[in-house]
Amino acid sequence: MSTIEITGLHRSYGSTTALEDVDLVIDEGTICGLLGRNGAGKTTLMSLIAGQERPSSGSVRVFGADPVDNAATLARTSFIRDDQRYPDGFSLRHVLAVAPSFHRRWSAPLARSLADAFGIPEKTQIKKMSRGQKSAIAITIGLASRSELTVFDEPYLGLDATARQVFYDRLIADYSEHPRTIVVSTHLIDEMEPLLERVVVLDHGRVRLDTDVDEARASAYSVAGTTAAVDGFTLGRRVLSSHGIGGLKTVTLDGRVDAGVRAEAAKAGVELSRVSLQQVVAALGADGAPASASPPSERGESDSLSTPTSGARS
Fold first, then answer.
1. Fold entry, domain 220-293
2. Any idea which architecture 2-215 has in CATH?
3. For 6, which of 12, 65, 117, 173 is 20 to 30 Å away at the CA?
4. Which parts of the chain register pLDDT below 50?
C-alpha cells in the first residue's frame, strides 16, 4: 500500500520551473532518501507532499487524498523543515508541552529521551540557541511525533558527528518498533546510506533515479586503467563520469557487471570496482560536486569486482 502517489507533477514559480513531469510512488513503511544538489527541487517536492503548496499541474495524493487543507491527512503528517520556526519566547519545555496537541501519536518518553541525549538546554529560548541545538529540537519533534508520514528536510544541519549518530541510531531503533513512512533529504549520503531502503534522486526538477538502495549501487560500476585501455573498454557504453590524471583514467559506467563484462575487462586490462551510493549520485551529477571528487566506498567490504589486474576476489 502506498503512502504517497505523485502523477505528472509540475511546479513553477513564474518563469522558473522547480519540478517537471514527476511521477513517484512511495510505499508505506519505507525510509526513503531524497537526494539532489541544492536547487534540484527537493524542498519544493516535500512542501507539496506536506500540503504547504499546490501543484501547478499534476496531482499529489497522500494517504489517498489531496493533502492541501486536508485536516485528516495533515494530522497524520509531520514535516520538519531545515528552517523550522517557533513562537517568540519558546523554549524546549514549551515545545514538549504543545507538541502533543498537534501529533496524535506523540511519545512523551521518546521526546524526553531525545532531548536528554542531544543535551538540549531546557530553559534557553530557541531563538538564542545554536544551529545544532535548533536541529536537535526539530529532530526530537519529528521522531517523537511518530507520524505515519514524517518528512525531514536536511534535519542535521549544525549537528556534530556524535549528535548525528544519535539521530541515526534513534531513528532506526524507533522505526523498527513503530514502522511508518519516512522521507529525508540529505547531502550526507555515505552517513545515511545504511538507514535508507529507497532513494529518489532529483536533478533540475526531474527524477533521475528511483529505486531501492541495492539496485542503485548495482546500477553502475567503476573502470580504471591506462587512458587508452579505459577508452577502448568504454567504447559503446554509457559513461556517467570521467576523471583522468596523467596517463591514467577512471570512469563510472551505467549498467551491471556480469561474466561478459568481466571477461571484456580482463581482455582490455582494466580494473572493475563497485561504487557506493554516493558515487552513483555524484556520477548522475546530482550532488553538486564533480564526480571525480566522490569519496571511495567506506563500506566494510572489498570494492573489487574480480579485477584482472589486482587478482582480487569477485
1. Alpha-Beta Plaits (3.30.70)
2. 3-Layer(aba) Sandwich (3.40)
3. 173
4. 286-314
